[in-house]
Amino acid sequence: YNLLHRLLIWLTTMKSSFHVSAALRVTMRDSSLEAVRGDSVLLPCSFFTSSDFSRLNVIWTLAPFSSPVSPVQVIVYDHGQVIKNPSLIGRVDFTGLPFSADIMLNETRVSDGGIYRCMVNNPPDTADPGVGELLLSVLEPPSLPVCEWDGAIDVGGSVRLSCSVEEGVPIPEIRWEKVNPEEISLPVNMEGELSGSVQIANVSSQTSGLYRCSATNVLGTENCYVNLVIYNSEGLCVLLTLVMVLVLLALLVIILWLHRTGQDGRSRRRRRDRKAEEEECYNEIRYTPSLMKRSFV
Ligand SMILES: *[C@@H]1O[C@H](CO)[C@@H](O)[C@H](O)[C@H]1NC(C)=O
Ligand SMILES: *[C@@H]1O[C@H](CO)[C@@H](O)[C@H](O)[C@H]1NC(C)=O
């Protein structure tokens, strides 16, 4: 800042000593700003001019971090009129016209982050320089991560715990820990920036417990949990056998019951079928003459 100040003094002395024609000069009071998503932020842009403001023209553009090569117009002041980018109406406005080109951005979003450029013209002043730049970062806390597990949860098997988070600026750091019955920090394999997993091979009953994944950045931490229960294969076999016996018994009961109701139903249906056949015959006899009659008319 000190250097900039000295440069400005130097420029001013240069101008006065060489009698350069009046020049408009833009200065940014900050070169980078941080806002938390949802907050308002003031983007400062001051200028010094020696002409009146009748032909003042201000243009703010944004080169978003998501597409830095295609800047968009944010807000324009021209011929006393303010024109806003339709996607920003209600969120952006000048705060000090015509004496400053500061703008206020409300309800900031992560997508508002990028390089803002403030361009000021005030003919007949020449711009020197008429442009200022500032970098805006919109931070957001991590969203709730999603914990998942897959693999074999019986003794000797291999289990993979995975955790992914969708939002967060700066990008949240992902950590896995076992928190119960003892606290152990686990090595994380990152899969991309937003998800990390832990591989546990040859699991035993000691592997059972509560595992926590945490996603952390400067704005906070969010956690999700997995409760792993490792089954002893023998115990599992006994359990499975028990379950299968129960299922078989249930099936047997159902089959017996179906058999009984099936017999009942069939005899009832047979009776109904016979009755329907009788009716059909009767209908034929009854309707055929009328049809014939009608076709002769
Ligand atoms: C932004 O918020 C400030 C203070 O809450 C308010 O005075 C201003 O009118 C708002 N600007 C816009 C464009 O809504
Ligand atoms: C798996 O663990 C058991 C006991 O914890 C050990 O005896 C066995 O050697 C291990 N097997 C492998 C393949 O590491």
TrEMBL record:
InterPro entries linked: Ig-like_dom, Ig-like_dom_sf, Ig-like_fold, Ig_sub, Ig_sub2, Ig_V-set, IGSF11
Keyword entries, A-Z: Membrane, Signal, Transmembrane, Transmembrane helix
Record-annotated Ig-like domain positions: 24-137, 142-217
Membrane-traversing stretches: 238-259
Pfam families, per database record: Ig_3, V-set
Signal sequence bounds: 1-23
Name of this chain's protein: Ig-like domain-containing protein
Organism (species): Poecilia mexicana
